[in-house]
Amino acid sequence: MAIIISKKGESATKLERKNFEKETELQKYIENNPEVIPIQDMKKDAKIAIIAREFPVRTGAIDAIGIDQDGDIYIIETKLYKNTDKRYILAQILEYGAFLYKTYENGEQFVNKLNNHVTIRHRIDLQEKIANCFRITENEGSVENIVEGIKDNFDHSIFKFFVVMDIVPDSLKEVILFVNENSKFDIFPVELEYYEHEGYQILIPRLFGHIFKKDISQGTDRGRIWDEKSFFDRVEETVSDAQIKKYIEELYPFTKKYGSQEPWPKNPTKQAVFNFYINVEGKNACLFQIYYYGSIYFYLLNTEIIKILNSIGFGIPENAKEKEFKLDIFREQVTLDAFMKVIKEYVRKASRVK
């Protein structure tokens, strides 16, 4: 992906996406600029402060521990996409959460260790560190309230897990989506798009995984039948990215107009989706399925449709098989107008409509 910058509408410059060379660079940037983690997308008016880096537990060290003004505890693990062990990051961060709780017997002991860690690293105590991070200058009770919140959250093993990467693989998003919907965990992947320009570092954070969490006490959930209202209610409740909302809002009427039947699946689904149907040899078949969080699954891939989509910028492997290819259209360098144009033309040909 690239971004374009200009001054007063002139001398436009195209910036290509960069990569962090080392995970330590990413960790340091997060410590110095915790605002890059967009927790406001899941908790309004919240601010995160990084209190500790390389915080020890039995099985290793947590990359970073953050807190907010309520004393909520954030366990943050960083990973670069190029690292081969990225597939284990989910198991790693959950293990750290488990052993954080086992390493320190209670909230009081945890806070004491945090205090020692901060004192050694920053030469100030934990309370002063908190006051500095949240700019608390007058009401000392506010600092005490935050500390008590940390203790209480620890005693109840209430942690929020963040996976921060330069590129979040779709496979990881899917696993986290499954875990969040079927457990009481809160796991949020954050992708940081990184650019440089004239000495400036430009980062665009994107938060994924802020999704509906079913009540697991209700037993097995076979999903529900979706309609226009329930689908867009889900989008409004869970999707914070304005661009994703815009694309979905434009794709829906396009689907209604050019699809061969109403877009809503007849069977229950756990996740909010609508389908784009085409008429093939007198029967309606699903060409692709649009998920509320911005992904599209293709179901009728063939040589022709792959060639058409790749002609406008998609990178679909030529040997991709039916029902196997998933695309996050909103993260690709393809305009929505171009996508809808080629789909409309394909539907015309497939349906033999002149």
Describe the structure.
With 354 residues, the protein is an alpha+beta fold. It has two domains: 23-207, 3-Layer(aba) Sandwich (Trna Endonuclease, Chain: A, domain 1); 228-351, Aspartate Aminotransferase, domain 1 (Alpha-Beta Complex). 37% of the residues lie in helices and 24% in strands. The chain contains ten helices and twelve strands. The chain is elongated, with a radius of gyration of 23 Å. The two termini are 37 Å apart. The model is unreliable at 211-221 (pLDDT under 50).
Task: Compute the CA-based radius of gyration.
Answer: 23 Å
- Output the strand order for the largest sheet: 3-4-5-6-7-8
Fill in the CATH topology of the largest domain: Trna Endonuclease, Chain: A, domain 1
Q: What's the main sheet like?
A: 6 strands, mixed
> In total, how many domains does the architecture comprise?
2
Q: H/E element string?
A: EEHEEEHHHHEHEEHHEEEHEH
Give the overall shape, derived from the CA principal axes. elongated
Distance between the termini: 37 Å
CATH class of the largest domain: Alpha Beta
Count, helices: 10
Instruction: Kindly estimate the percentage of residues that lie in beta strands according to DSSP.
Output: 15-25%
The percentage helix is 25-40%
Low-confidence stretches: 211-221
Seen as an oligomer or otherwise, the chain set is: single chain
CATH-scheme architecture of the largest domain:
3-Layer(aba) Sandwich
Mean pLDDT: 83
What's the count of strands? 12
Going by helix content, strand content and strand pairing, the class is: alpha+beta
